[in-house]
């Protein structure tokens, strides 16, 4: 593993907590190292790195899961630094991932390039499509419906929905959103 | 209180018929062509029987209503958009004469709320409009009891026609057009269903709610509105596989108004079925409150009007 970062115990004023950060890296040399730097630089203590070279995301990226410890007040700084360094942070949270989000899209889904739509959602909404159901009762050239389940970091939920809304508008699709906060 | 009722459709006539039960008296009742006016009390059954027989509701001109010895004007003429006339002028006239006004007509409260409040401020009369939002369901009075400042958002289903259509589509796997035709046969949807299925009727109600929360500033133009015409049965099927369903949900906050089809948990409070309505009032200190019931209908809406009359200060 890389030259991580077991530096001097960080000065903690409220104790440290463990966090899981899920990244997607481009499959190029040096990418992983570049992602670890911001964590160490901001006082994060790496616990484990799970580099899933075998599983590639729909966009051809490699998912990486990093467990780390840091004082709670520094965790946001670490995530911001990662994003600032151009690292694609899919999820960042205390001990667990963000949340799942379901949406339904309606329209000429196949005609408007369904895989392109999904790729756009993953990129713009900073979300991972984990499940897709498609219903095209009148054939794939007609109006179809798709239900998408997405992994998204909790604090990015509203932003993700807004991004999906823009993509749907752009492609002339009807978006059925969930309610804010997830539940009624 | 002595009531002058403008509008003799389903709501206006129900108010006239039920007023006595609530301890009030009808001194004027008008439709768009004529009025029955009697300071000693209009004979409501006779007036309505005349109207049912195709005759004038009374011998007077509609304008004569304003000359009656009334305490409260009940504005139950059809909702109009834009300048909200003639409803708005009716309210202005009554407030100028220092009378109270209770509205069932959504137009003036949705489209010209700020002007209404300014007119009210110059009058000793007050305005109330519980009946404009959710028929029989106490929505505005619940917000009033929580104080509007402690309410952060109101969401819900406030159009029974759209909810009926989505419920039937989900239950039977039928298309929108099929269920709409069925709803029209049943009298649940009107011949021109635009107002209901395109979300305008619901949007007016949520505009009114945003006006109450923010103390004005909103009209229908400020609302982002999507209807349910584009929702296929397949979308409802997919939602059901995931334990959800689709409802035409409105959302009113101080920041804005949105109405559109949304995914809701199939067993959640907002997934009411048939023509039923529901509102979820999100409060700062007390979590969410849910009120559900009949959101339309003559007697239902009349009860909201008569409750409003009961809350007015005596003159």
- Which residues of chain B form runs of ≥5 with pLDDT under 50? none
Could you list the spans of chain A in which at least 5 consecutive residues all have pLDDT below 50?
1-14
CATH C-level class of the largest domain in chain B is: Alpha Beta
Helix residue percentage of chain A: 25-40%
Shape of chain B: globular
Strand order of the largest sheet of chain A: 2-3-1-4
Number of discrete domains of chain B? 2
Mean pLDDT of chain B: 96
Order of helices and strands of chain B: EHEEHEHEHHEHEHHHHEHEEEEH
**Proportion of beta-strand residues of chain A:** 25-35%
CATH topology of the largest domain in chain B: Dihydrodipicolinate Reductase, domain 2
- Major beta sheet, strand line-up of chain B: 3-2-1-4-5-6
**Tally of separate domains of chain A:** 2
CATH architecture of the largest domain in chain A: 2-Layer Sandwich
Number of helices of chain A: 4
Which CATH class of the largest domain in chain A applies here?
Answer: Alpha Beta
Tell me the distance between the termini of chain B: 9 Å
Please name the CATH architecture of the largest domain in chain B: 2-Layer Sandwich
Give the oligomeric state: heterodimer
Order of helices and strands of chain A: EHEEHEEHEEHE
């Amino acid at each position: 593993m890389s030259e991580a970062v077991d530096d001097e115990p960080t000065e903690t004023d409220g104790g440290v907590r463990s966090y899981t950060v899920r990244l997607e890296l481009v499959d190029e040399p040096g990418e992983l190292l570049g992602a670890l730097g911001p964590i160490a630089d901001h006082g994060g203590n790496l616990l484990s790195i799970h580099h899933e070279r075998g599983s590639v995301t729909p966009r051809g990226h490699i998912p990486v899961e990093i467990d780390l410890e840091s004082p709670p007040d520094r965790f946001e700084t670490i995530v911001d630094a990662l994003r600032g360094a151009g690292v694609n942070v899919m999820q960042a949270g205390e001990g667990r991932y963000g949340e799942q989000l379901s949406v339904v899209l309606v329209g000429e889904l196949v005609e408007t390039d369904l895989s392109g739509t999904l790729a756009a959602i993953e990129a713009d909404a900073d979300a991972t499509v984990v499940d897709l159901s498609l219903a095209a009762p009148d054939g794939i050239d007609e109006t179809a419906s798709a239900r998408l389940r997405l992994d998204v970091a909790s604090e990015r939920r509203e932003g993700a929905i807004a991004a999906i809304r823009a993509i749907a508008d752009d492609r002339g699709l009807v978006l059925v959103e969930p309610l804010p906060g997830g539940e009624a | 209180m002595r009531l002058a009722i403008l509008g003799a459709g389903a709501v206006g006539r129900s108010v006239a018929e039920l007023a006595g039960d609530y301890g009030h008296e009808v001194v004027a009742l008008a439709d768009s062509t004529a009025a029955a006016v009697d300071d000693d009390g209009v004979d409501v059954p006779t007036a309505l029987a005349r109207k049912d027989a195709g005759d004038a509701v009374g011998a007077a001109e509609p304008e004569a209503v304003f000359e009656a010895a009334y305490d409260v004007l009940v504005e139950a003429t059809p909702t109009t958009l834009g300048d909200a006339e003639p409803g708005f002028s009716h309210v202005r006239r009554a407030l100028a004469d220092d009378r109270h006004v209770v509205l069932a007509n959504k137009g003036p409260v949705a489209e010209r709320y700020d002007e209404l409040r300014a007119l009210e401020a110059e009058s000793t009369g007050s305005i109330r409009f519980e009946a404009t939002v959710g028929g029989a369901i106490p929505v505005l009075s619940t917000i009033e009891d929580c104080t509007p400042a402690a309410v952060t958002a109101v969401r819900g289903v406030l159009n029974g026609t759209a909810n009926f259509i989505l419920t039937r589509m989900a239950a039977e796997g039928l298309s929108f057009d099929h269920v709409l035709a069925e709803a029209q046969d049943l009298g649940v949807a009107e011949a021109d269903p635009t107002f209901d299925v395109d979300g305008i009727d619901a949007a007016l109600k949520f505009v009114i709610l945003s006006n109450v929360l923010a103390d004005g500033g909103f009209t229908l133009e400020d609302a982002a509105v999507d209807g349910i015409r584009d929702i296929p049965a397949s979308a409802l099927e997919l939602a059901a596989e995931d334990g959800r369903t689709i409802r035409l949900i409105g959302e009113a906050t101080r920041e804005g108004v949105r109405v559109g089809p949304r995914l809701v948990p199939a067993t959640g409070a907002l997934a009411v079925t048939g023509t039923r309505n529901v509102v979820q009032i999100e409060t700062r200190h007390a979590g969410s409150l849910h009120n559900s019931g009949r959101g339309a209908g003559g007697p239902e809406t009349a009860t909201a009007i008569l409750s409003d009359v009961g809350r007015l200060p005596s003159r």
